[in-house]
């Protein structure tokens, strides 16, 4: 059940929320899958970023991670998301300009204030979407 709802939660964010936020004006919104090779073992590791929103005109990009869980450690989620974004490339090899990050969860136990980082819990989403 949580997997199903989590997928719908991500879809809601991509299709409804991003257009209402005043972070970037996205021209393209989707997900991203990629991979890298571990240095020690050379094993292929898969990566997924729940939300990628691009503005090709301004070169701005927004990366997001959604968790349908309570008491999420937003700091750890942000750290993991930033690590994944190291492997992201635009398909046409454009240089990325300003980067933004959004972390979404039912609720948070930890979240720091940091430039270009936004945290949203269910209470925040209710205010934005209604």
Explain the overall architecture:
The longest helix is centred in the first third of the chain and has 19 residues. It contains 3 helices and 7 strands, in the order αββββαβββα. By secondary structure, it is of the alpha/beta class. The chain is globular and about 45 Å long. A 5-stranded mixed β-sheet has the order 1-2-3-5-7, sandwiched between helices. A two-stranded parallel ribbon has the order 4-6. It has one domain: 3-Layer(aba) Sandwich (Trna Endonuclease, Chain: A, domain 1). This is DUF234 domain-containing protein.
The beta-strand count equals: 7
- Which shape, going by the Cα principal axes? globular
Order of H and E elements: HEEEEHEEEH
* Percent range of helical residues: 25-40%
Structural class: alpha/beta
Give the termini distance in whole angstroms.
25 Å
Beta strand %: 35-45%
The Rg value, from CA coordinates, equals 15 Å
* Adjacency order of strands in the biggest sheet: 1-2-3-5-7
How confident overall, as mean pLDDT? 90
- Main β-sheet description: 5 strands, mixed
CATH fold node name: Trna Endonuclease, Chain: A, domain 1
Number of continuous helical runs: 3
Spans of at least 5 consecutive residues whose pLDDT stays below 50 are none
> How many domains make up the 3D coordinates?
1
